[in-house]
Amino acid sequence: MNKKDSGNFYVPDLCRVRAVFMLLITSELLVLVLAIVQAQDSWIDWNYFGLLSLFVQWTTLTSAALICLLRPRLAKMSISRATTAIVGLVLLDVLAFSLFADSVLHPQPGVAPWHGVAKKLLLALLIVLMVLRYFYLQHQWQEQREAEMQARLTSLQARIQPHFLFNSMNTIASLIASNPEQAEDAVLDLSELFRASLRTDDQLIPLNRELELCQRYLAIESLRLGERLRLEWDIEPGLGHQAIPPLTLQPLVENAIYHGIQPRPEGGTVRVEVSSKGHFVYLMVQNPAPESTERQHQGNRVALSNTQARLMALFGEPAVLKHSRQGRTYTVTLRLPRRSTNNRNHNQPAKAQ
Q1: What gap in Å lies between CA 155 and CA 338, rounded to an integer?
Q2: What is the DSSP string of 187-231?
Q3: What letter would DSSP give residue 106?
Q4: Residue 335 backbone dihedrals phi, psi, to 5 degrees
Q5: Residue 244: partners with Cβ closer than 8 Å, 6 or more residues away
Q6: Tens-digit pLDDT profile for the chain (353 aa)?
Q7: Separation between Cα atoms, residue 34 and residue 12, nearest integer Å
Q8: Angstrom distance (rounded) from CA 148 to CA 159
Q9: Which of 127, 188, 282, 283 has the most CB atoms around its CB within 10 Å?
């Protein structure tokens, strides 16, 4: 199994300050433990602690720098070869510093004290293997988490409701004779929905693309529901490039239609609101609450659980999904940390009235 992409290498990027800082803190804690064990007449042997800290910190910094420089080449190797190379690199570094330290602190003619050097090398070998094992397990856990998130995305993207497809095709068929231009627009909207459901490469897209997808979906449903479906849009300008997982808002709008509008003979209003406050962007979908709370809960479970899991995987704890019912209004609110996508080629969708 070869790692051809350095970004997918199981050893973290040691060129980053945070990674090096964590290594230094961990190694210093290990030195403290050894100094406590070494002390006989007191709690800690400060002389031993100071000398060992100097040795360990220099060894850690130089090893991290070498691994940082060689990381692109190491990432192209198999895991076993990369691990062997890293272990050999660290052991050579420890050997060089051990010989240098012994020559300075204990200058003796003749053969160097290999017994002490061998102990240092053995200890370094055990520590490096434990650290690399930890890095590998962390990498495996992260890959599993990303795979689960991708599976949830694929599941959600494949969830085009059969009743929606059936109703859409019937609507298009009825419009072909009476209003062919409107039927053609509906076909284009439906094809864009299918294209979005099959696109699984993007983990984040601009908000304006997701809003455009919602508008296409609502345009089709408006043909079917007519005056029963009323729409309200309140989109704050300047948020078109906010990063959002694909098919995040559209399933919520779909649920609003299916559970809040379709069962009511008089229909109702679906309100989509996007605003920003501080370092967060808020997306809100409101619709008339269904008569049966249990039915609504069962219907929303898949979309809400998938959306929440994907938000947590991509944004972490700052991303929040909440849903509430106040009187006759059901509200779903998303809170996303402000983050822009690199794609600047999408225009802000027009506000529907």
Answers
A1: 26
A2: HHHHHHHHHHHH--S-S-EEHHHHHHHHHHHHHHHHHHHGGGEEE
A3: S
A4: -120, 120
A5: 204, 205, 206, 207, 210, 283, 336
A6: 444 455 678 888 888 888 888 888 888 888 788 778 777 777 777 777 777 788 888 888 888 888 888 888 888 888 889 899 999 988 898 888 777 766 665 555 544 567 777 877 888 888 888 888 988 898 888 888 777 766 766 665 555 555 566 667 777 887 787 778 878 888 887 787 777 666 656 678 899 988 988 888 888 888 888 889 999 999 999 999 999 988 888 888 888 888 888 888 898 999 999 999 989 999 999 999 877 654 444 445 666 777 787 787 778 788 899 988 888 899 999 999 998 886 444 444 334 43
A7: 26
A8: 17
A9: 283
The answer to pTM > 0.70 is: no
Whether the Cβ atoms of residue 260 and residue 270 lie closer than 8 Å to each other: yes
| Interaxial angle between packed helices 79-105 and 46-75, expressed in degrees from 0 to 180 and rounded to the nearest 10 | 150
Q: Closest by alpha carbon to 249, among 296, 285, 280? A: 285
- For residues 189 and 169, the answer to whether their CB atoms sit within 8 Å is no
Q: In the 8-state DSSP scheme, what is residue 43? A: S
Q: How many residues does the chain have?
A: 353
